[in-house]
Amino acid sequence: MTVWDALRGQAPVVDQLRRAAAGDGLTHAWLFTGPPGSGRSTAAKAFAAALNCEVDDVIARGCGECTGCLTVLAESHPDVAFVRTEKVTITIDEAREMVAKAGDRPQSGRYRIIVVEDADRMAERTTNVLLKAIEEPTPRTIWMLCAPSPADVLVTIRSRCRPVGLRLPPVADVAALLIERDGADPALALEAARAAQSHIGIARRLAHDADARERRAETVRVPLTLKTVSQAVALADQLVRIATEEAASSNEERDAAERAKLLATLGVGEGDKLPPSLRAQVRALEEDQKRRAKRSVTDSLDRTLTDLLSFYRDVLMVQLDGGVEPVNAHLAEEIGQFAAASTPETTLARMDAINLTRQRITTTNVAPLLAVEAMAVGLI
């Protein structure tokens, strides 16, 4: 497989990046944008691999088999740095570290590449730290920024980057990828791809995690029983609980592994008493894990609300006779009855309430339960 094979349904993007890797249109800064699940980070990684591919034929760069490609894909290449945050924002100190790294000459590859996967999670003053480095780049240094949309990046940065716009791949392409790469059952892969609305990462989780499928099924059925304010309050508690359980299930094992690795590095055996001189390092790890847990709950709640939104999306398509394939085909009868009992205007208002809540929980410090309670009342 080449590095481009993971970009299913993105033929124009692959063509653009292939040509740039061969030297046609290569520039020092790139901005990858697209909705969640479109594969913008995957595209940036594939491009970085192609740029440092060891194949001599420029047309064939991105082979996916040479040491250059494999180490970039494994995120272990000495000349390619991947910057992502599991906190709410990327800090100024992290931005300064990026700038310092960008000034180094490549050690073994053709280019020094900095891939910023969460460019939308930088405050304005943090982004300004990068401005000069992107405006006056070091020779053989390439910046790759990833964000949901161009509007999520300062115009001063945006104007200096070549845009790469991605779209969500078709459901069939996502299902085919799950079957070929992950060995998923074909029927389950198609169901997961449809339920994830072509988000490859979420589709993979749904295809392999029965608990995740059950939590999603529980979420999309919620509007069918929502009639009173007391039920709305219970709904809010249920949605936050689902999101918290989802985040906890993905963090618990990882947190334990990180702690065990740190203790092993410090020479502390399992069950040994922690010396006072080492407690600060363990405490710092625990603080980082707490911040990550908060971000995980926020991200999980946003995905839960996206699943809820898919129910109303299907309702609206029935009301407008849109002729679009439903996301929740297993609820077709219930959705038809729900659609007949309301109007498109009401459905749009409910969808707006959900989207407003998603914006609040991801961009402000509002208590998630309060935000979701306010939304749930508006869904009655």
Characterise this structure.
By secondary structure, this protein is an alpha/beta fold. It contains 15 helices and five strands. It has helices spanning 11-21, 40-51, 67-73, 92-102, 124-135, 155-158, 171-182, 186-195, 200-208, 210-220, 229-265, 279-319, 332-340, 344-363, 368-378; strands at 29-33, 80-83, 112-116, 141-147, 162-165. The chain has a five-stranded parallel β-sheet, sandwiched between helices. Strand 3, helix 5 (124-135) and strand 4 form a beta-alpha-beta unit. Helix 7 (171-182) crosses helix 9. The longest helix has 41 residues, at 279-319. The chain is globular. It starts with 10 loop residues before the first helix and ends with a helix. The mean pLDDT is 85.
Supply database-style keywords.
380 residues; alpha/beta; five-stranded parallel β-sheet; 15 helices; 57% helix
Secondary-structure map:
Elements: H1 11-21, E1 29-33, H2 40-51, H3 67-73, E2 80-83, H4 92-102, E3 112-116, H5 124-135, E4 141-147, H6 155-158, E5 162-165, H7 171-182, H8 186-195, H9 200-208, H10 210-220, H11 229-265, H12 279-319, H13 332-340, H14 344-363, H15 368-378
Helix pairs in contact: 1-2, 2-3, 4-5, 7-8, 7-9, 8-9, 9-10, 11-12, 11-15, 12-13, 12-14, 14-15
Low confidence ranges: none
Strand % is: 5-15%
Share of residues in helices: 55-70%
**Class based on secondary structure composition and strand pairing:** alpha/beta
